[in-house]
């Protein structure tokens, strides 16, 4: 059994991770942590997240001595804000832990990316270079050897899973940048309420237009510029990305279908729905699946990609990476 620690366990993705680690036959939940001065310190996670009550009633411990926690852990899941993950991941790594970070702290190698999009200067270039991007269906070989896995963001997961098969098969005319319109539920912003993400204040609106940090994350990992327009919707969980792209000269709907079906033929968690089909949230909410639909008319393809932001967009993708890293059966604790 691998001793597994979750930092940020009281948050939305942390609670999902807690449930999956509890269900995993090869992982032992050895500690749940929150910040040193958290208002939730020492509360039982089952009291905070009712769905866990009676399953996991461990206390949320204040994280004081990172080194000491690291010494007693094999696997560390960081469900913390970007800068927190940035600050503490190297200590866990120095003690030999395998780290799976749900934040954006180690996702993109580029000089100005963290100052431009995250508002802090990255201090750990060496780890940034070694970190493996955890897009599970596409990076298996590297994830299997990684010490540090940077689990992709939720919008980047939905967007890349739809576009990557077509780009890799050379079916997209990249002179015209694919346009990604994506709507996320409010849980995408985490559990802390503010005027912009308080449920009563949310209607349906675009945000971060031309400035959102997921645009460069998507472009970097796809190797293709994109226009990305995130929207906040008045529902709790899920992301629907609707993507318009120009096909290369002469590409047919049959080729698009073949590329998507071939890419995911042995990948249970990504479900190509077929030409003329549209992905919908209801089918993926509370699951680790990504559903993809597509339609072609003339030289354009419209793809729809739906995930649960907290699961395939975060926690269950992290669990996929753990399963790959340690050679466990791929769907363990997910389906
Ligand atoms: N929500 C989503 O859909 C997705 C989130 N992510 C990323 O995953 C990470 C977690 O997100 P989410 O679960 O939504 O966030 P939440 O805001 O819901 O939870 C954050 C957690 O971190 C804890 N925390 C804060 N500061 C510290 C600290 N210094 N040390 C230890 N724990 C700390 C918080 O508890 P307390 O403040 O009480 O200490 C809380 O448990 C973020 O980086 C986010 O960007 C990625 C993909 C999707
Ligand atoms: C609705 C909402 O606010 N969503 C978040 C994305 C959350 C996420 O997946 O992203 P990171 O891990 O990269 O933070 C946002 O737009 O900032």
Automatic annotation (TrEMBL):
InterPro entries registered for this protein in UniProt: AGPR (IPR050085), AGPR_AS (IPR023013), AGPR_dimerisation_dom (IPR058924), AGPR_type-1 (IPR000706), NAD(P)-bd_dom_sf (IPR036291), Semialdehyde_DH_NAD-bd (IPR000534)
GO molecular function: N-acetyl-gamma-glutamyl-phosphate reductase activity; NAD binding; NADP+ binding
UniProt KW NADP keyword: yes
Keyword line: Amino-acid biosynthesis, Arginine biosynthesis, Cytoplasm, NADP, Oxidoreductase
Keyword Lipid metabolism assigned: no
Documented EC number(s): 1.2.1.38
Annotated signal peptide: none
One BP annotation, GO: L-arginine biosynthetic process
Semialdehyde dehydrogenase NAD-binding domain mapped to chain residues: 3-146
GO cellular component, one term: cytoplasm
Compartmental location: Cytoplasm
Reactions the enzyme catalyzes: N-acetyl-L-glutamate 5-semialdehyde + phosphate + NADP(+) = N-acetyl-L-glutamyl 5-phosphate + NADPH + H(+)
Chief localization: cytoplasm
Record pathway: Amino-acid biosynthesis; L-arginine biosynthesis; N(2)-acetyl-L-ornithine from L-glutamate: step 3/4
Pfam families the record matches: Semialdhyde_dh, Semialdhyde_dhC_1
Active-site residues, record numbering mapped to chain: 154
Similarity section: Belongs to the NAGSA dehydrogenase family. Type 1 subfamily.
Function recorded in the entry: Catalyzes the NADPH-dependent reduction of N-acetyl-5-glutamyl phosphate to yield N-acetyl-L-glutamate 5-semialdehyde.
HAMAP family recorded: ArgC_type1 (MF_00150)
PANTHER family (UniProt xref): N-ACETYL-GAMMA-GLUTAMYL-PHOSPHATE REDUCTASE, CHLOROPLASTIC-RELATED (PTHR32338:SF10), N-ACETYL-GAMMA-GLUTAMYL-PHOSPHATE REDUCTASE, CHLOROPLASTIC-RELATED-RELATED (PTHR32338)
Protein name: N-acetyl-gamma-glutamyl-phosphate reductase
Organism in which the protein naturally occurs: Grimontia sedimenti
């Amino acid at each position: 059994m691998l001793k597994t620690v979750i930092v940020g366990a009281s948050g939305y993705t942390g609670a999902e991770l807690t449930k999956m680690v509890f269900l995993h036959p090869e992982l032992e939940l050895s500690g749940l942590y929150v910040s040193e001065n958290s208002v939730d310190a020492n509360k039982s996670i089952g009291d905070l997240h009712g769905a866990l009550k009676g399953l996991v009633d461990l206390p949320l411990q204040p994280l004081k001595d990172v080194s000491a926690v690291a010494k007693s852990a094999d696997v560390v899941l960081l469900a913390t804000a970007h800068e927190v993950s940035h600050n503490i991941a190297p200590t866990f790594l120095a003690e030999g832990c395998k780290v799976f970070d749900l934040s954006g702290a180690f996702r993109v190698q580029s000089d100005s990316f963290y100052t431009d999009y995250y508002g802090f200067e990255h201090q750990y270039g060496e780890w940034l270079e070694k970190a493996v991007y955890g897009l599970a269906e596409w990076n298996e070989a590297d994830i299997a050897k990684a010490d540090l896995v940077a689990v992709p963001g939720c919008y980047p997961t939905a967007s890349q899973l739809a576009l990557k098969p077509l780009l890799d098969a050379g079916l997209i005319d990249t002179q015209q940048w694919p346009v990604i319109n994506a709507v996320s539920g409010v849980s995408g912003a985490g559990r802390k309420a503010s005027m912009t993400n308080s449920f009563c204040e949310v209607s349906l609106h675009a945000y971060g237009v031309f400035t959102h940090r997921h645009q460069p994350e998507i472009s970097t990992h796809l190797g293709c510029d994109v226009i990305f327009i995130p929207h906040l919707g008045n529902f709790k969980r899920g992301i629907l990305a609707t993507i318009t792209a120009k096909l290369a000269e002469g590409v047919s709907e049959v080729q698009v279908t073949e590329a998507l079906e071939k890419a995911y033929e042995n990948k249970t968690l990504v479900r190509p729905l077929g030409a003329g089909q549209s992905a919908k949230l209801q089918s993926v909410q509370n699951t680790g699946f990504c559903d993809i639909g597509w339609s072609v008319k003339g030289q354009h393809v419209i793809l729809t990609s739906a995930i649960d932001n907290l699961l395939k967009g975060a926690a269950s993708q992290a669990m996929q990476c753990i399963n790959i890293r340690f050679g466990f059966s791929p769907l363990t604790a997910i389906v």
